[in-house]
Every structure is written in structure tokens, then in C-alpha cells.
Specification:
By secondary structure, the protein is α+β, with helices and mostly antiparallel strands. It is 24% helix and 29% strand. The chain contains 4 helices and 9 strands, in the order E-E-E-E-H-E-E-H-E-H-H-E-E. The strands form 2 sheets. The protein has a 6-stranded mixed sheet with strand order 4-1-6-5-8-9, sandwiched between helices. The radius of gyration is 23 Å and the shape is globular.
Length: 175
């Protein structure tokens, strides 16, 4: 007896693939600017939190085709109204946050700002409350330990002409 297509067992409908657990993190881009005195540009985020959050200017990398470097250019233009051509990547920090997505923070060298650059800063007041130039010790007092670690290691990488520094929660990774 010959077999026909009607003799074949019916195909089962294709089952939907089980959801795949994929690592999820936010990518951030920050830019380290200094002035001729070695002070660092910090911004204070507008926040509902009780404690002000000071950090390097920058923000979230947009999903899709934006790179961290592209995000740095866009964020500095949007938040400070400054043109920006980021230099070397100074550090990459894996920041763990309880009950939230981890962040991969890329810190780029923004170079030195002069008085004309500083006079051109116009804050996006929906995101930033203020800006200031700070000596590193003042920055240390204003910033969270993780943000201070990013700044400190980025300054070290810049001064030594090396980098990027590999960090976890603002602390260098031991190799």
C-alpha cells in the first residue's frame, strides 16, 4: 500500500517560543570637562529625592542605533547647550542598583572649558537644577561614592594618558 500525504500524521501547530531571559541594563554616557584650574564641571539633577544628586553631565543612551559617544554629544547639547566632541573613553563602570536595572556608564574626556564656554552654558531646567565648577575635593563631598569613583578614576586615566579604567560601582576591577 502506498502512502499519500493524507496518511501522514498531522503536524502539531508550532508552539510559541518560551521567553528568553536576556540581560538587561541601561547604557549611560558621561563627559568629564575641566577648566584651566583643574576644576570639574558637575551638574545637579532635578529630582524628587530628598538628597540632591550631583554628577558628571550626560545621560541615557537611546535604544536603537545610538552609541555611547553619540549619546554624549546629544546629551551635552540638550542639557548644557554646548557643542561637544568627546575625546578618549576614560572609564567604563558597571553600576549595580538595588531593585533597579544595572547601568553601564561610559565616561568620555570632554577636554578643557574656557570662560567663553562656561558663559554659553544654558541648562535644560526640566532635567538639571544647577551646574558648578568644583575642585576634586569639593566634588567628592557632593557626589555619591560610585559617582566619585567614576570621576576619580577618569581623572587618573586622563592624567596618565591611559584608559579606559574598568570599574564596578566606581571601584577599579582587580586583574
Amino acid at each position: 500500500m502506498s502512502s499519500t500525504h493524507t496518511d501522514l500524521p498531522a503536524r502539531k501547530p508550532r508552539e510559541a517560543a518560551a521567553p528568553v531571559d536576556r540581560p538587561t541594563a541601561l547604557a549611560k554616557a558621561r563627559v568629564l570637562f575641566t577648566d584651566s584650574a583643574g576644576r570639574v564641571l558637575l551638574v545637579r539633577l532635578c529630582s524628587v529625592a530628598a538628597r540632591p544628586h550631583w554628577g558628571l553631565p550626560g545621560g541615557t543612551v537611546e535604544a536603537g542605533s545610538e552609541t555611547p559617544r553619540d549619546a554624549a554629544v546629544r546629551e551635552i547639547r540638550e542639557e548644557l547647550a554646548l557643542p561637544c566632541s568627546p575625546g578618549r573613553l576614560l572609564s567604563v563602570d558597571w553600576v549595580r542598583r538595588p531593585d533597579d536595572l544595572p547601568r553601564m556608564v561610559h565616561v568620555f574626556d570632554g577636554g578643557q572649558l574656557d570662560e567663553r564656554d562656561l558663559a554659553r552654558i544654558r541648562l535644560d531646567e526640566t532635567e538639571l537644577g544647577e551646574w558648578r565648577m568644583c575642585a576634586p575635593e569639593e566634588a567628592r563631598q557632593l557626589m555619591s561614592p560610585q559617582s566619585w569613583g567614576q570621576l576619580k578614576e577618569s581623572l587618573t586615566a586622563r592624567a596618565a594618558g591611559r584608559g579606559p579604567a574598568e570599574l564596578v560601582d566606581g571601584t577599579p576591577v582587580a586583574h
